[in-house]
Amino acid sequence: MIDKKKQVNMDELFQKAIDSAESAYAPYSKFRVGAALLSEDGRVFTGCNVENRSYGLTICAERTALFKGVSEGAKCFVALAVSTPDSEKPVAPCGACRQVISEFMPPEAQVRFGGSSSERVDTTIDKLYPFDSLHDLAK
Ligand code: THU
User: Fold this and answer.
1) Are 117 and 103 contacting, i.e. CB atoms less than 8 angstroms apart?
2) Neighbour order of strands in the sheet with 120-124
């Protein structure tokens, strides 16, 4: 459960996602992505997409941030921001990332994504990854 008394500053988190996209290694797709994850203990983990000449080995920004956080001991995240500066419109996290992220985020966790325009999509994990029947298995 998320502590509702603690207000998440999504503007600040989104700015960190924008900054992280600068580190993207995306010479093949030329599509940079930055992500920022807030853990329940208040730490922020950022990530970018890292591509490879063997295309399938590419890792998305969301999973980079997530794996950084989990490997630093964070196991629950309360908010995610994703920036895609090379698209004008907001681009939602891919299916693989939705599944992996849902393992470590409660259904009510906040998600914001946006591209280079001022348009932002604000949603929650349960909307991004509904019918998550496996969530309870992990308990
Ligand atoms: N990408 C992400 O980093 N996150 C997503 O949710 C969608 C796709 C990356 C992977 C690849 O480097 C590039 O965007 C184009 O698909």
Assistant:
1) no
2) 44-48, 34-39, 77-83, 110-114, 120-124
Beta strands in 1-139, from DSSP E residues, in sequence order? 34-39, 44-48, 77-83, 110-114, 120-124
Ligand 1, pocket-test mutation among 20, 33, 89, 128, most atoms within 8 A of CB: 33
62 belongs to the catalytic site: yes
Q: Which residues pair with 38 in a beta bridge?
A: 44, 79
Lining ligand 1 with CB less than 6 A are 26, 29, 31, 33, 49, 51, 58, 60-62, 93-94, 97
Kind of pairing between the strands at 110-114 and 44-48: unpaired
Give the pLDDT score at 135.
73
- Alpha-carbon gap, residue 7 to 29, rounded angstroms: 36
CB atoms within 10 A of CB 110: 18
**Strands 34-39 and 44-48: what pairing?**
antiparallel
Residue pLDDT, tens place only, 1-55: 566 567 899 999 999 999 999 999 999 999 999 999 999 999 999 999 999 999 9
Is the whole model's pTM more than 0.90, yes or no? yes
